[in-house]
Amino acid sequence: MLRAALTLALASVAVAMTSPSPAAAKSIRGIDVSRFQERIAWKQVGATGIRFAFVQASRGSGDDCLVVPEECAADPFYARNYRGARAQGIRVGAYHRAFASGPGVEGARKDALEEAGVFIARVGSLRGKDLLPVLDVETPFVDLDEEALRAWIRTWLDRVERELGVRPIIYTNNSSWQATGDTTDFALDGHPLWVANFDVPSPLVPAEDWAGKSWSVWQYTSSGRVRGIDGAVDKNRLRKGFGKIDLR
Questions:
Q1: Is 193 within a domain?
Q2: CATH number for the domain including 166?
Q3: Which of 75, 111, 138, 234 is an active site residue?
Q4: What is the pTM for the complete model shown?
Q5: Residue-wise pLDDT tens digits, 53-67
Q6: 178 in any annotated domain
């Protein structure tokens, strides 16, 4: 009897650890994709209830991607994914996977401008009902202390905002954001947060709960399955509705 009760208790804990909070459960469902999903059958995806997709436009700047270095710079699947998702009524946002490096503040600014240029060239311009563009800030960082990393992020965000006319989202996770000194500056400047934290009931949010604003998008798993996509795909929840991250 005691063993059965203990088994039931452990099972309840496991469910609690993997089930979303009630607020997250009511949120809007979405995915994010890149060249690594290759060809996607967007008509099938559109029939699943997925309502938004962040699509990788670029990663690094050409020869600086320390993770899968042979797959760097502009994403060759971006235009196809963008068109395919929109054709199914799925809201789309473009993102850039940063490979931030220095050395130092000046080196960081130069590198950020180069990566921003790759992203802008791939995206071109934004259209009505597009979601805000995204800067993916995660390790590894090379030759950057806290100040230099903040300079890198600021430089990329400022250039993209000047060119595209909107304030980008920041994607990160708690451990990567600690490399900035856990700064709240970008939260206070109005950049929404897309946070990654897998297989938990609610995400760990950096920068003092993003300066009290918390997350707008939560990437809650990297091993999701969606009809029309071969293999695993990241799944996300949008908490407050499209108005917070919409162009209009």
A1: yes
A2: 3.20.20.80
A3: 138
A4: 0.90
A5: 999 999 999 999 999
A6: yes
